[in-house]
Amino acid sequence: MRVVFLGATKGMGRALARRMSERGDQLFLLGREAEELQRSAADLAARHPQHAVVGTHACDLAVSSTFAAALDAAEAALGGFDTVVVTAGLFATQEAMEADAALAEQVLAVDFTGTVVFCEHARKRLLARGGGTLCVFSSVAGERGRKPVVLYGAAKAGLSRYLEGLDHKFRAQGLKTVTVKPGFVKTGMTAGLKPPPFAGEPEAVAQQVLRAIDGGLPVVYTPSIWRWVMLVIRWLPRFVMRKIGF
């Protein structure tokens, strides 16, 4: 695959980029920080020198004016692309966002508006070439309104519905939309939070997501147990949700 990858510098994104590079996919990395991009490119080159990263370019989900130039650069370097992966995003606790309106606005803008607008740029380019794969990381936080993730969950709920709509509208035209819904995964984003008994590891998540990309699955819960956890949560009556802290 010829992959444009936004968010390959940390956590689950880094693990997925390593797996893609290992098997020979061509990667063009996008991200906010030039130094982090270069470190990630060097890491992949050291691990798989025969499958070097094609290039890097700055792209910030908070700044939509960076999207077109980043995708132009990727297109030129790769000679066109057939896959776009978006693992980038922001996270903050509910308590932090309730206490800081500016932080809440930033998380909502990046995780919903910025991500959707970037995906619209990517979608149009993929469809212009006859289709391809758009794989985007959402979250199980968007499955149900829950006390610990009211704001973050709202952004991810909107993102998941958007991706579902893309799948319904454009799958017949060749666009495969893969919505990844991670549960709790041990990354820098979740550092300091108490992990549940079934917390995931980035490498296992990457393996599962890569299978979903290859199979064109529209939705993947990872770790897989979260599919059943959220099934139960979706069916709990509202009076129960008001009492529990999950």
From TrEMBL:
Pfam families: adh_short (PF00106). Keywords: Oxidoreductase. Transmembrane segments: none annotated. It comes from the Bacteria. InterPro entries: NAD(P)-bd_dom_sf, SDR_fam. Belongs to the short-chain dehydrogenases/reductases (SDR) family. This is SDR family NAD(P)-dependent oxidoreductase. It comes from Nannocystis bainbridge.
